[in-house]
Write a structure and sequence with these properties.
49% of the residues lie in helices and 19% in strands. The chain contains 10 helices and 11 strands. The radius of gyration is 21 Å and the shape is elongated.
Length: 273
């Protein structure tokens, strides 16, 4: 997998899945607009509320229309809304089967922790993403000591694992879509392993800084060396030494709690070297 993949995942208009989400978001806005009308009869208002609730989950599942009305109703009734503040933990360890996490808005970080306390980020979850491994108990013989942390204030829908597993066993479309999500996450983890094992750290750091800058939409990153080390699975001292080297090469400017990208072209050249 090429080094450009993480950048491509950040492009908001590139995937058919985003086109699906845009259509569903328009439907959601229209439903709320109708609900706000003062002259809406009680019966119609109930129908609009049902439509809003249904759309709430359908934006996460392109196969929603292939579920039966009963299955849609059961998933909708079981889902609960959860708000996480930045830095809050939602799932920790293989024994914690939190349930399926559906990210309405915000950003989550999934990472593993070594016995020595060292972290490494496996993947991130953005708007309309689904975290399957927080409900790893629905997958036979698969357990992950995975921790989920909110990188920004985040709104979630949480579906209990037992409800999702039961409907998945009944519905081939939902089962197939779940397998697609699982395969995608495993691909990300395998890609990460390749980076850690075979890619020089200076290239990995350059790639991380460029991706972080694209996510935050600014060249000035408010991030500590410790936080970068946690993302990349290394020691803070290693990050500090490499950032200082980047600074002598004119690629970044360092200040307390800030890394400013000053030469993106040099960073991209290093990333692709």
């Amino acid at each position: 997998m090429s080094a450009e993949v993480p950048q491509k995942r950040l492009t908001p208009t590139a995937s058919p899945r985003n086109a699906f989400h845009n259509r569903q978001n328009r439907r959601l806005r229209n439903a709320f607009r109708r609900l706000r009308r003062p002259s809406v009869p009680a019966g119609q208002a109930a129908g609009y509320i049902k439509e809003v609730l249904t759309i709430d989950l359908s934006v996460f599942f392109p196969i929603w229309a292939k579920l039966t009305p009963a299955q849609q109703a059961e998933l909708t009734a079981a889902a609960t809304e959860v708000s996480l503040q930045k830095g809050a933990m939602r799932h920790g360890g293989s024994g914690d089967c939190t349930g399926l996490l559906l990210v309405a808005c915000g950003r989550l970080r999934a990472y593993i922790l070594s016995e020595e306390g060292r972290e490494i980020t496996l993947y991130r979850l953005f708007d309309r993403d689904i975290c399957l491994f927080s409900a790893s108990c629905i997958m036979h013989s698969i357990q992950f000591a995975l921790t989920i942390e909110a990188e920004k204030d985040t709104q979630l829908q949480v579906i209990p694992a037992e409800v999702y597993r039961r409907i998945m066993e009944e519905s081939a479309p939902l089962s197939n879509y779940t397998n697609e999500i699982m395969a995608s996450r495993f691909s990300e983890v395998m890609w990460l392993m390749e980076q850690v094992l075979w890619k020089r750290f200076d290239r990995r750091l350059a790639e991380f800084l460029l991706e972080e800058s694209a996510l935050e939409e600014t060249p000035s990153l408010r991030i500590t060396h410790e936080a970068i080390a946690n993302h990349l699975g290394t020691a803070r001292e290693v990050v500090t030494r490499m950032l200082r080297y980047f600074q002598t090469e004119g690629m970044v400017r360092l200040a307390r709690g800030v890394v400013e990208l000053t030469d993106r072209e040099k960073l991209r050249a290093l990333q692709n070297a």
